[in-house]
Amino acid sequence: MYELSREFRFDAAHTLQRTVDVEPSRRIHGHSYRAEVVVRGHPDPQTGMIIDLSLFDKALEEARDGLDHRFLDEISDLGPTTIENLSSWIWRKLAPVCPNLWRVTVRRDSDTGACSFYGSESL
Question: Which DSSP state fits 73?
Fold first, then answer.
C-alpha cells in the first residue's frame, strides 16, 4: 500500500458565528491555509502510478481556484466557514476525479490546529 500526498495553499476571508471570541469572529477576517490531499492504494501495474500526477495536480488546482482569494461566506455549498467544512468541501470537489482519495487535511498557518476528513458517500 502506498500513500501519495500533495499540498496547496490558499488565502481567503470569512466571518464566523460563534459563542467565544464573538466580535473578532463576526468581523470579516482572513487566514492563510494549507491543504494536504492524500491518495492511497497500489500502483497500476501498467503505469506504475496510484494516480497520474498531472491529473492530480489539475484537480488540486481547480479546488484551490474555488477557494483562493475568495470570501468563503459566498461559497454556496461550503456551509459555515470552518476548517471542518473546508476539508469536506475539498473532498467533494476531488472525489469524482481522484478515486483513491484517502484524506484531506486543512491547516491555518496562524495556529497549530488542523482538521482531517476521511470522506463519506453521504456528503
Answer: G
Query: How far apart, in Å, are the Cα atoms of 75 and each of 14, 39, 72, 99, 111?
Result: 10, 25, 5, 25, 24
Phi, psi of 90 (to 5 degrees): -60, -45
The pLDDT of residue 123 is 47
Confidence (pTM) = 0.90
Total length of the chain: 123
Q: What is the DSSP letter of 50?
A: S
User: What phi and psi, each to the nearest 5 degrees, are found at residue 79?
Assistant: 85, -165
Q: What gap in Å lies between CA 46 and CA 66, rounded to an integer?
A: 33
42 φ, ψ (degrees, to nearest 5): -105, 140
| Spans in the chain with pLDDT lower than 50 | 122-123
